[in-house]
Amino acid sequence: MSKIMTVDILSSIKGAQPSEAVNKLFEVIKNANTTNNNTFNNNRNNAVSLDSLRDDVVIESASVEKQIIIENFPKEKNGYLVVSKVIEE
Amino acid sequence: MDSQIHKIHQQLVNKDITCTALVQEKLDALKQNTNNTVNSLLDNLALDLAAKVDAKIANGETIGLLEGIPFGIKDVYMVQGTYTTASSDLLKNYKSAYTATAIQKLLDAGAIPLVKENCDSFGHGSSSENTIFGAVKNAINPDLVGGGSSGGSAVNVAKDYTIFSIGGDTGGSVRQPAGYNNVYGLKPTYGRISRFGLMAYASSTDCVGPIAKSIEDIRIVLNVMSGKDFKDQTTYASAEITQDSILTSDNIKTVGYFKNFIESDAIDANIKADFLAAIEKIKAQGITVKALDFFESETLVSTYYTLAMAETASNLSRLDGTNYGNRIEGDNLKDTYAVTRSENFSEETKRRIVGGNQVLSQGFSDEIYLKGLAIRDSIADNFETDFNEVDIIISPVTPNTPPKIGDSLKDPLAMYLSDAYTVGFSLGQLPTLTVPQGTATGLQITAAKNNDELVLKFANFLKDTI
């Protein structure tokens, strides 16, 4: 698990390389002065509080919704929806 | 301009026009348009709905204000049974299985959807050139870009192809095209309108935003779409903004602007002069104007893009061709993911996904991503202090006039920097409206969080002032 993952692997994009334009933006952040370096210790937490979390509910999809989901599936054979060959590493 | 919605409503009620004729006229105009604003037309749906409105009127039934009003939808919103492509190869044949909350509310109010509108793919762009449907051409000068990412929506409104359109604004994607095409475009307070069914770009700043030709039409559409939604836990309940409440602006005493925006070398000389002239006219009305300090444009743009790229890398990781999308088979599952994504994402989308994965990866997250979050907090603190001193902040929408089609794609960094005046308000999650006045690309009006009403009030004041 100590394998270093490059951005092309992380992004699942063949031959992907970091871009020069984007790296320039990141340099600005690295060099910026901040008065507050610990974002977890402040009061700007955008997360929903535990008390306001909604309950888990199961909502049955309408039949038209199910039909469209099936239509969107990329590959079908003999009435089955086909995924790509899964390999184990 | 006066409200188009009120005008058409009256014409329908008086039987001066039929809804079917109105919808047909707009569909014909959209079909023939050469600005590349259309990804798909919803002609059957629209004409069916129009016939129902006509039948209701013929039966002497009362119709609601939005009933029969034709509108456009940026092609990143789910509308059940319609193609929702995000202007991408990956989803070019994707059909929505359900309808976005904001759009459903408009449908429930009787508004008639005409068109899924061209935009930058997944919202990734500021020019609406990053699309498989051809670059959107500006409504005023077709050699120039329509702006982005909600370019098709702003051009459709400007050309009267739609009465209003629903765009999406993550870092300026409603406000900038509105400015480029001289119409109104609102990014409401984050959470005022549900994001459920809006294809996620950067979830912490994504906002649903109306584009229209009058403040009144923005108000009407905003009211209908607002509200808490069980399906988006970041939404909050908001009070309706009444027509009367935004007519007077007596409580606006102090207006601020960011002096570094205006003193920047990057701003066009005319935009600067026009902005300063607008400030003088506001002062002449007895309002105090304060010059405020703010973060450098480079810091704002870099913070926004760092966070937006990180979020889009996560949000778009689901697009792998397994359950939906244009799957291209590879040697095995992992290879299929990689080939599908490599072949189907545009260069700009790939650049942002890769950038996002860079900042989220071990060794980079502390010095870039987490630091970006910390800067965002400082920006929000800065706004909080400012709104203790001023009621409204006004700013130009863009440093420059719209570029020629083809120029933005050559220089992504220049495109990112062109968002300098819009991204800060997104990071602050503040309500901000583009008005087609003051400079060649308009002015932005911003108020404190949840104070969308004050933004519309000040817009009405400006309409009569400059």
Which features characterize this protein?
heterodimer, A: 89 residues, mainly alpha, two-stranded antiparallel ribbon, 3 helices, 30% helix, B: 466 residues, alpha/beta, Amidase signature (AS) enzymes, eleven-stranded mixed sheet
What is the structure about, briefly put?
The complex is a heterodimer of chains A (89) and B (466). With 89 residues, chain A is mainly alpha-helical.
Please give a structural write-up.
The complex is a heterodimer of chains A (89) and B (466). Chain A has 89 residues and is mainly α. Chain A has three helices and two strands; from the N terminus they run H-H-H-E-E. A two-stranded antiparallel sheet of chain A has the order 1-2. Chain A starts with 6 loop residues before the first helix and ends in an 8-residue tail after the last strand. Chain B is of the alpha/beta class and 466 residues long. Chain B has a domain at 4-245: Alpha-Beta Complex (Amidase signature (AS) enzymes), CATH 3.90.1300.10. Helices cover 41% and strands 12% of the residues of chain B. Chain B has an eleven-stranded mixed sheet with strand order 1-3-2-4-6-5-10-11-9-7-8, with helices on both faces.
